[in-house]
Amino acid sequence: MALPRITSPHSTGSNRTQRVMLLVLAATLPGIVALTWLYGPGTLINLCWASAVALGFEALLLKVRQRPVQFFLRDGSALVTAVLLALALPPYSPWWLTLIATASAIVFGKQLYGGLGQNPFNPAMVGYVVVLISFPVEMTSWPVPHGVGLGAGLQHILGIASMPDGWSQATALDAMKLNKSLTIEELWANPAFGHFGGIGSEVVNLAFLAGGLFLLHKRLFSWHAPVGMLAALTLMSLVFWNGSGSDSNGSPLFHLLSGATMLGAFFIVTDPVSSATSNLGRLIFGAGVGILVYVIRAWGGYPDGVAFAVLLMNLSAPTIDYYTRPRTYGHRKAERGFKMGE
């Protein structure tokens, strides 16, 4: 009997890698618009420079590994890594900072493991953590919304001039972590705070939420990982929320709309390669990220912990997969007790 010849789902049809990557890039547009409105063209400069670096290093390493360069460059995975990384970096980042972050993401986060589909860690988060640990001052120098001039920003990118006075300020997560005496009402007078979260980050998080819902509508991933992360972060912040006291770590709404929460929930933890594979596993994976994000924000050494939380859970993904493997279709569950002789 002749069997029908069916093409693999990853090579043609609606699940093509290139189509998936293009949809992810399209979903980042609301966030890009929000960041550009708040900080000027600094984010666009980051995007262009990071994309060029990512494609360049991807092509170089593919050639060294004797792989077809054009074929793998067209899948769009390197471009997605560059865009996600550029959106996480402060606008008007020095050119060398973006270079190191993007090169680390492509080289150490992706190609050294064999390329797309074989990386155990999220490449964008690898690049982000490398520069966050190595250059904490530059990575925490976010400009004041609507207060950045293009000329001064370009000079800062190229290293021609140092950062102008008053160009940056502490983020809301920084202010919340360092606060020891002010009540929440008093702390909210700080210009770093907006209505519910950090000034500017509220709009950016809502923009990435819109992009994430678009991807959910297109069924590019299941709801389990993002819902697990956001639910766990909400629960943790609710349990340890001390109202308006000076030792409060912030309300659930504050944590949902500050930092890189929505970018992480819909664009990072949903990575099909470095995350868990089953639906239950994705739910556990996302919940683990949410718990770790809150732990790092509240008691860790960094104001935002999305990148560290994701990488730690990437290490746990194989174990999660082992214990959450779905039952093979057509087979009964193994019985625990066996009679003698059976």
From TrEMBL:
**Keyword Disulfide bond in record:** no
- Cofactor names: FMN
Topology relative to the membrane, per the entry? Multi-pass membrane protein
Q: Which residues cross the membrane?
A: 20-38, 44-64, 71-89, 95-113, 125-144, 192-216, 223-241, 253-273, 280-299, 305-323
An annotated GO BP: electron transport chain
Function, as annotated: Part of a membrane-bound complex that couples electron transfer with translocation of ions across the membrane.
Q: Which family does it belong to?
A: Belongs to the NqrB/RnfD family.
| This protein's name | Ion-translocating oxidoreductase complex subunit D
